[in-house]
Design brief:
heterodimer, A: 345 residues, TIM Barrel, two-stranded antiparallel sheet, 9 strands, B: 468 residues, alpha/beta, 19 helices, 11% strand
């Protein structure tokens, strides 16, 4: 339609503090793209071309406003030596962490994104997506934050224990995880993607405010500082309940906060003048069996979200489930696309 | 303030590098330099005003061609690129900071000093959106123009109406100034569509220039500037001030003389000191100063210093020894890289912006002075005038040949190209003329490359014969 903005234009305005015609609609269609496309998750997670094709297919199907390169949060830890179990119909899970004792940290090396683990899968997918549609759609590469990667290197339980009992070991691990993330981010940028930082383990559902402030936030902040040096606008996604740490989010330096379980109005009141918000439709509500009225949720989210002074993106609180109902996804996207700002030109 | 002596890459051999290498080199630039390189410097708390960033930053936001281009490796060039590439955001930031934003369409540029003499007012040139489809390797703006009936039979400047329609490339201008009369037909069609779509335009008439009616044209044009001045007074609520105008003219003359100096340095004998795309960015700064005159001056001065240092030290790129005059700006910048890859260098140019090259006089009325400068415009008179501009450039630079990158559908190209070709050939020099291919037309693009290759080979062979 003449005069209609495309996603690249809409996101572009949002990121320079301008009001676009409406909020971008960007549910996190990641592994669900594989299901929509008809491939299994092993193919999706190990073949960049398949990942790209699936993303393009899903985007054509749903018309959401961004391409997402994401397989799992262990992508960096795996490239550093941890073993992950790939499954056909579920996302990969940690099988055996590379660090079995604290001294082994010294043996870790920063992976080469061009050849180690499945990092090249990301780069291939980004390049293909950027080449195919990068003028119209932003390409987002989901990069695990150092806190989450450290858990993948040491094992979640051991790592969390080390933050309390051997903080110096935790910091060593976080430091090398940070360096690995910096290097990987650089390659993703060069391939054409904007990094989105994901830190599921830094959730308020898992750790305290104090642990977040001491171990998660400082390394995320340094990673964002590196990316800000290149003038990139960075979205931080934290899964689970973050309602108790919303005031701590701006200190990470993130430009957008993609939130899961927290009230949008509270988030606006606490940090809406400092950060753009994305969220936060309940992902499980997209399952066929769910009785959650997703249309109502989407309308509520839009109504609250568009009042955020720094801007809003209608999204899901976490990844759309692999078995999400296409009808429900269509519905929330349709509601988002009907929303509008009081845009005057 | 960035100065060459602080240039951390000055010790590096001058060469062209890709976006990947710039991304890594960028980390070596001291943080304080990145922090202090800002536009709108008087806005002290503007956290968004930094602009010294590598091409990879702009590539991530969709400027896909940057992944293919070759860039000069000096810090001054990086600064120039960052400044030019940030113009779009700068227009929005200007509006957010309370500036008036004025669109100048058609063969203007000559009115910019007048516009900038009003307080808190900046301008931009929507015609320059013609580079956007090429930088993004995209048809978005062209497709949008097609919705208004402006298809492939119209010049690439049709991208401008896409910008107006999409409302996502610049803020709504406080005033649109459009040229009518002796101007490009295609842009005239674009402006008509913009006006028909509801955007009010202040029409500025350009008279046809000829030897016989020069004085009349000058008087007429001075009247057009006066009318524009009245419009600006009405818009801003501020009376025109000759003293403010003179301050701006001093700066603009300084800018024009810096650009001229850069062009002279570029044509110097010896190694090619700089890339043609960087020089094109320099030349186009004269139109609307990339929306910040003070910073623009500093950027171009820094660039001139770097060039001067290179020429004095006999530094430059190796293997680019055939001097070419480029006629009509390359809408697709990669064409310039092709030339350089084939051993050529752009020693001079005629980029249809001659109206912003001469010094503005200060010993007559402001409107007369602006009119006189504007009457040097490349396109407002006979094609013979423009052909002479090309011959002057050949003479000045001792060029080996000329390349004319035309635009299919552009009204003036088919008529004047043959006249320019004839004039250059009569001087005994070879000319290559082609139509620039639209983004994505890979096969047409490869044909252009082949023709450039043959052209460069023929110059080389002819040189060796004469040398023998």
């Amino acid at each position: 339609m003449p005069g209609e903005m495309n996603p690249r234009e809409r996101w572009g305005l949002l990121l320079i503090d301008e009001i676009p015609d409406r909020p971008p609609v960007y549910p996190l269609v990641t592994s669900h793209a594989a299901a929509a496309y008809g491939c299994d998750l092993i193919q999706y997670c190990t073949d960049g071309e398949v990942l790209a094709e699936a993303q393009l297919y899903a985007q054509r199907l749903y018309q959401h406003e961004g391409l997402s390169v994401f397989t799992d949060v262990g992508i960096i830890a795996e490239a550093m030596g941890s073993k992950y179990h790939l499954r056909e119909y579920e996302v990969p899970i940690l099988d055996s962490p590379i660090i079995q004792n604290p001294e082994a940290v010294e043996d870790l090396r920063i992976p080469d994104p061009v050849q180690d683990g499945r990092l090249p899968v990301y780069l291939e997918a980004i390049d293909k997506l950027y080449t195919a549609a990068g003028d119209i759609l932003p390409v987002f590469a989901f990069i695990p934050c150092p806190f989450t990667t450290s858990a993948g290197l040491r094992g979640t339980e051991e790592f969390l224990i080390s933050t309390a009992l051997a903080p110096e070991n935790a910091h060593k691990l976080l430091e090398i995880s940070l360096q690995a993330a910096v290097k990987f981010c650089d390659e993703c940028i060069l391939a054409g993607a904007l990094p989105v930082l994901v830190d599921p383990l830094a959730s308020g559902s898992v750790i305290s405010r104090s642990t977040f402030s001491q171990f998660a936030s400082p390394y995320t902040r340094r990673l964002i500082e590196h990316l800000h040096r290149y003038d990139l606008d960075i979205m931080l996604h934290i899964c689970g309940d973050t309602s108790g740490m919303l005031d701590l989010i701006p200190a990470t330096g993130a430009d957008l906060f993609s939130m899961d379980k927290a009230d949008i109005s509270s988030a606006i009141a606490i940090c809406g003048d400092k950060i753009r918000l994305a969220g936060n439709l309940p992902p499980h509500g997209l399952l066929e069996v769910s009785r959650i009225d997703m249309a109502q949720k989407a309308e509520e989210a839009v109504e609250k979200g568009i009042t955020n002074p720094k801007g809003f993106v209608l999204s899901t609180g976490c990844e759309a489930p692999i078995k999400a109902s296409p009808e429900k996804l269509h519905k929330i996207i349709e509601i988002g696309r009907k929303s509008h700002y009081d845009f005057k030109w | 303030m960035l100065r060459p002596h602080k240039n951390c890459h000055q010790k590096m051999r001058a060469r062209q590098i890709d976006y990947r290498e710039w991304h890594h080199l960028f980390r070596q630039i001291p943080e304080e330099l990145v922090e202090s390189t800002r536009y709108y410097r008087h806005l002290n708390d503007a956290e968004w005003s930094k602009y010294l960033f590598p091409p990879s930053t702009h590539a991530v936001y969709g400027n896909r061609l940057l992944r293919k281009l070759k860039f000069d490796n000096s810090l001054a060039s990086l600064r120039l690129w960052g400044f030019a590439m940030s113009e779009g955001e700068r227009l929005y930031r200007a509006r957010q900071s309370g500036y008036r934003v004025i669109a100048e369409m058609g063969d203007l540029g000559a009115v910019t000093p007048l516009v900038h003499s009003f307080p808190d007012t900046i301008s931009f040139y929507p015609d320059c959106l013609w580079w956007t489809p090429f930088l993004m390797e995209s048809h978005v703006l062209f497709n949008e123009a097609a919705e208004f009936g402006l298809g492939e039979d119209c010049c690439f400047v049709r991208a401008a109406i896409g910008g107006y329609s999409k409302r996502a490339y610049f803020p709504k201008p406080d005033l649109n100034i459009g040229v009518t009369g002796a101007t490009c037909d295609d842009m005239a069609a674009v402006m008509s569509e913009i006006a028909l779509s509801g955007d009010e335009i202040h029409w500025f008439e350009l008279p046809h220039r000829s030897e016989d009616n020069f004085q009349y044209s000058k008087k007429f044009l001075a009247g057009e500037h006066k009318k524009l001045c009245n419009k600006m007074e009405e818009l801003t609520g501020v009376k025109f001030s000759e003293s403010r105008f003179n301050d701006v003219v001093d700066k603009v003359n300084r800018l024009r003389s810096l650009i001229k100096e850069c062009k002279e340095l570029t044509a110097a004998d010896g190694l090619n000191p700089i890339g043609g795309i960087e020089m094109m960015n320099v030349e186009f700064s004269a139109l609307s100063y990339y929306a910040d005159l003070d910073e623009c001056l500093s950027v171009i001065e820094d660039f001139r210093d770097m060039l001067k240092a290179r020429v004095n030290a006999k530094e430059g790129y190796t293997g680019q020894d055939i001097k070419i005059i480029w006629v009509t700006p390359a809408a697709d910048p990669i064409l310039i890289n092709y030339l350089e890859e084939l051993g050529g260098r752009i020693a001079g140019s005629e980029y249809v912006i001659n109206q912003v090259t001469s010094r503005i006089r200060k010993d007559c009325s402001p409107f007369e002075a602006l009119a006189e400068a504007q009457l040097q415009g490349s396109l407002m008179g006979s094609s013979a005038f423009r052909a002479q501009l090309v011959l002057d450039e050949i003479e000045r630079t001792k060029a080996d040949g000329a390349i004319i990158s035309g635009i299919f559908g552009s009204s003036h190209c088919p008529f004047e190209t043959s006249i320019i070709i004839k004039a250059v050939r009569e001087k005994g020099l070879p000319v290559l003329a082609f139509d620039t291919a639209q983004p994505g037309k890979v096969k047409l693009q490869s044909q252009i490359y082949n023709r450039m290759q043959a052209f460069m080979e023929s110059i080389r062979i002819s040189r060796s014969r004469y040398a023998g």
